[in-house]
């Protein structure tokens, strides 16, 4: 059974592909609309501008990542498998994530959306492991470490330095283990 997607969903999926292939700066709204199978003016019936659909694409990316992690947690996957999944998801959206990092510095709306996304991630993390859970700030520290390390591996930064990525993957698995474990403070 196929599920019919709404116009906005089709536009967001097309935008995800465009942003990931061409970055934010190399993508225009006309191309997003055409890729989704619509006339260019259709875009503006659903979205104010390219920044708004970029933020919606980021929310889509986050839902995809939550879905993958949730499925693995339901299978009681290892910390290493969770780390690999996160890295794979970051690799799949490499150019999009580059634009996200850049726009988070340059654009107040994207910065606010990223902050809200991270707060959502912290709430998700708090529900991951056994109680008692650590405070939001402690979760945020581990989240930032996890995110940066996953991006570094996905970008090939360790390989660029002639270093083994497996060490970074193991470190990422340890961070995930810390998130899944009760707070020991």
Could you walk me through the main structural features you see in this protein, from its secondary elements to its overall organization?
- The chain has one domain: Tetracycline Repressor, domain 2 (Orthogonal Bundle), CATH 1.10.357.
- The chain is built from ten helices and no strands.
Following the backbone from N to C, one meets helices and strands in this order, namely HHHHHHHHHH
Q: Tell me the name of the CATH homologous superfamily.
A: Tetracycline Repressor, domain 2
Percent in strands: under 5%
Distance between the termini: 49 Å
Question: Which structural category do the helix and sheet elements fall into?
Answer: mainly alpha
* Uncertain stretches of 5 or more adjacent residues: none
Short description:
This protein has 185 residues and is mainly α.
Show the helix and strand layout:
Blueprint: H1 7-22, H2 29-36, H3 43-46, H4 50-74, H5 79-92, H6 94-106, H7 108-126, H8 136-155, H9 157-160, H10 165-180
Helix pairs in contact: 1-2, 1-4, 1-6, 4-5, 4-7, 5-8, 5-10, 6-7, 7-8, 8-10
Question: What would the keywords be for this entry?
Answer:
mainly alpha; 185 residues; 10 helices; Tetracycline Repressor, domain 2
């Amino acid at each position: 059974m196929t599920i019919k997607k709404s116009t906005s969903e089709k536009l967001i999926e097309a935008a995800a592909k465009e942003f990931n292939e061409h970055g934010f700066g190399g993508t225009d709204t006309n191309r997003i609309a055409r890729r989704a199978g619509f006339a260019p003016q259709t875009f503006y019936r659903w979205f104010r501008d390219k920044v708004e659909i970029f933020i919606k694409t980021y929310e889509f990316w986050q839902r995809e990542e939550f879905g993958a992690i949730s499925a693995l947690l339901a299978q009681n996957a290892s910390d290493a498998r969770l780390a690999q999944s996160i890295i794979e998801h970051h690799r799949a959206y490499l150019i999009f994530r580059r634009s996200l990092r850049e726009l988070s510095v340059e654009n107040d709306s994207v910065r606010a959306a990223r902050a809200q996304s991270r707060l959502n991630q912290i709430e998700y993390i708090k529900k991951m492991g056994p109680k008692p859970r650590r405070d939001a700030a402690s979760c945020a520290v581990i989240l930032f470490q996890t995110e940066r390390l996953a991006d570094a591996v996905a970008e090939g930064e360790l390989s660029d330095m002639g270093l083994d990525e497996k060490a970074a993957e193991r470190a990422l698995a340890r961070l995930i283990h810390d998130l899944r474990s009760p707070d020991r403070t």
